[in-house]
Structures are given as structure tokens and as C-alpha cells.
Amino acid sequence: MRSHASVPFVNSLPTPSSLEEILYDLPPLEGVLLHWHMYGAAALTPGIVSLFSRREQLLGPATLPGASIQLLATCASESLHRLPRDELSTSWETRPLHARLVRHCPTQSAVETQALMPPWVLVQKTVTLALGESLVLCTGAGAQLLSRQERYAIAQALGLPHRTSRHTTINPEIRDSVEVFGMLPGMVSPFLRPSRATKLTALVLLPWPRRWEAQAHEVAISLSLWESLVLPLGCLRQLLRLYAERTYPAVRLISLHEREEAGESPGDAGVSSLVTPAALAAHVLAGKDQRGARR
């Protein structure tokens, strides 16, 4: 492995091509995920610790930190095990995490990543929403736009005046994503460093059509500008709840799925049906076949 100087992220960012050269000169994450598949995600070796340290030192906010990747792998493994399986489940559907890592050209937006994915893989898209003094992360599957009704539902869940939803800012430029989240703008996601203090008021889980899960769609979660972890869409809500519970339990978790599944339009339900502490939010939707039809 060649020696690389630390990347100076403070004043200017190096080109994606120079960062990509650094990334591909490091040991691949597949080896780490394979080790965790065999021994559990709590198993760290000096080599894994060194690799994560080098990734953070050289790639900076262009990659999730090692602690986030480790916790993400732990929560993803638990979520995968909780998905309903039967005798028709294929080896492709049950493949382990090290077989779910996808490498691609560097992307700095959900739209760019989506263009590189197969048609059955939806990118996880996360946007920052400023409602007055509240800072909210909204995340879901697919490069969907945040609708006016969804903004209203979020403001209502936070107990803010109705007019606040008409004066929201999506991905506000006044916010420095590296300073606030430790990630580049194209990398911002709910998978924050576990030990990092957060200024978030809430994490919002946006809804997606139920048929996507019935059609066995998958979701691509960014680990860096060049790497995505592809998981069954049916485990994304559980994964996000588990991660939030263990990383920032004091942050409100607002799920717009519950309202959609109850057949309510935004503004019909009370705040109590939408907002729960993240520490109490982890659950499994028992009795529902989240795998559905095969491709």
C-alpha cells in the first residue's frame, strides 16, 4: 500500500479522481464485512481498526466513519434476520452483507447514484429540512421530492404553527454539512457517528409505495462516494429505527409510514400517533410479508 498524505478538507476538497485513487489503494471493505459475517460485527482486529483509521484520515467526510459502518452493519444484520423467510427464499435474497457491497463511480447526489443502480434498486435519499430553528433529517427510498403535505405533517408533528411548513428550507445552504454532520453534502444520511453530538430536532422516515416492497425492491445506502450497501427495502425502516435508537435516542423519530398505513391524510392524525422517542421506536411489523413477489 502506498503512503498518502492526509487530505486537507478544511479549505478545499481534492478531486473525486484523486480520492478514488486513495480509496482503491486501501484494503476493500468486503474483507471487513466478511470477517463480521463469520465472527460478528463486534469483532475488531488491529487490521480493521487501522483500515478505518486510514479511511477517515485520507477520505475525511467522503466516507462514513468506521464506527458508523460497524454499527450500520450490526443493525443491518439484525434487520435482515427479522425479515420473514420461507422455503421459496433464494440465495440472492438471503446473501450476506459482504455480497451486498456495490462499488460505483463517485456520486454526490441521490439522483447521480440512482442512475448507476439496476432498476430494482432504489437509492436512499436524505434531505436536510430547516423549519424555523428546528433542523430535521428526512430520509426515504427513491429520489422523491419532499411534498408540501409531508412538510405540513412534519411541522404538525413537531408542534409548530401551520405557517411554518410554508417557510421551510430544503438543504439550507447556511448549514455546513461537514461541520453539522461530518459528511459531504452528497453523503449526508442518518448514519451519523455514534459518539458525535447532533443538532438534530428530529429524524423523519418518509413513506414509499407499498408495492415497492411487494416487488422485492432493494435500497442502496451510501458508505462513501464510491460504495453503497444494497439491502432489501423491507428492512430499511427497521434499520433506521435501530440505528437511531442506539446513536441519538433523544432525537424525535417521526414516521410518516404509520399515517399512510392508517389511511390518514397529512393533518388528520394527532401528534402522538406520529412521534415517539427513538429508544422506544424499534419494532417489527409482525405478520406482514415484506418480501412479496419475486423478480
Count of strand segments? 9
Can you summarize the main beta sheet? 9 strands, mixed
SSE ordering: HHHHEHEEHEHEHEEHEHE
- Number of helix segments? 10
Question: Which fold name corresponds to the CATH topology?
Answer: YbaK protein
Query: Which shape, going by the Cα principal axes?
Result: globular
Mean pLDDT: 81
Could you name the CATH class?
Alpha Beta
First and last CA, distance: 41 Å
Structural class: alpha/beta
Low-confidence stretches: 7-11, 262-295
How many structural domains does the protein architecture include?
Answer: 1
Q: Using the 3D structure, state the CATH architecture.
A: Alpha-Beta Complex
The Cα radius of gyration reads 19 Å
Strand content: 15-25%
| CATH superfamily membership | YbaK/aminoacyl-tRNA synthetase-associated domain
Percent range for helical residues?
A: 25-40%
Descriptive key words:
295 residues; alpha/beta; YbaK protein; 9-stranded mixed beta sheet; 10 helices; 32% helix; globular
